[in-house]
Amino acid sequence: MIKRYIGLVAVSFACYSMGGTTAYSHALQTSLYGGISRTHIDPGPLHISESETDILHSDNDSEGTIGIGLGWQFNLLNQNNTHGLLGGFIAGLNYFHFSAEPGGEVWLYGMPQFVNYDYQFSLDTDRLLVNGQMELFPALQVIQPYVEAGVGYAHIRSQYCELPTLGSGATDGNLIFPRRSDNQWVYTLGAGVKTQLSPQWTLSLAYNFTDFGTIHAGPYDSDVVIQQPLDIAMKLHTALLGITYQWA
């Protein structure tokens, strides 16, 4: 009788443990991304010489962004235990490509009455990020909110040029820097929502903020030597649509 009672308790405890505690599972997934990114650039002063320092006023640009991701999803809860704040964690690699041509006005000597030139800053960027995504509120059935963060490396090709403003009367003095490459660390922060289309397919919509730090343009072309390189702080605001396939 005692042995039978002990066996019954052991079986009951095992069933409770399997049904009521956290069950960890994982799966490989791949993602494709597409969206719109808006640049936010903050050019520093352009030191042409000891006697001339120009001020740049920027107009930001919006262009398309494409990307691909490879991740490993860890589900922290089983189907019988969906209460709580955290539902799952995804760790992986994301690659994104973005090109744009933001520009603006050049105030010669920093004076608004001397707006005779417009500038254009051509950008071509590739970035590879180690990314982490945390799913929230697993009890929600249709829409799954999440937050994410990433850090990685960016390869940036850029070129700065100035041309006379139409109607300004200026006809010469074009300033064209050679194309330059920068490699630097970047980080990204984001939040979004996702919905499951099928057991394997998931659709997501997110906002991502990316900080590229400071890009250096110049320092000279074949005709004009400037006093020091032009520093341009650059950030991206991106609305991103993603489609993800989870491998069984």
Automatic annotation (TrEMBL):
Pfam families tied to this protein: OMP_b-brl (PF13505)
Protein name: Outer membrane protein beta-barrel domain-containing protein
Organism: Legionella brunensis
Presence of keyword Signal: yes
Highest taxon of source: Bacteria
Outer membrane protein beta-barrel domain span: 13-220
UniProtKB keywords: Signal
InterPro entries given in the database record: Beta-barrel_OMP, OMP/PagP_B-barrel
SUPFAM superfamilies in UniProt: OMPA-like
